[in-house]
Amino acid sequence: MRRTHWPHSGTIEERMVQEDAAPPEDQGGRSPQSPPWNPFSRPARGSAPMFHVEPSVAAPTGDAMTRVEAGDAAAVWDGRGEADETAPGVDATPGAGSDAVRRFPRARLLAVANQKGGVGKTTTAVSLAAALAERGAEVLLVDMDPQANASSGLGLRPADDQATIYHALVTDVAITDVIVPTPYPGLSFVPSSIDLAGAEVELVSAFSRERRLKKALATIQDRFDVVLIDCPPSLGLLTVNALTAADGVIVPIQCEYYALEGLTALRHNVELVRANLNTGLDITGFVLTMLDGRTRLSRQVAEQVRAHFGERVFRSRIPRSVRLAEAPSFAQPITVFDPSSRGAMAYRRLASELLTRLERQLASERSSGA
Question: Class of 108-368 per CATH?
Answer without folding.
Answer: alpha beta
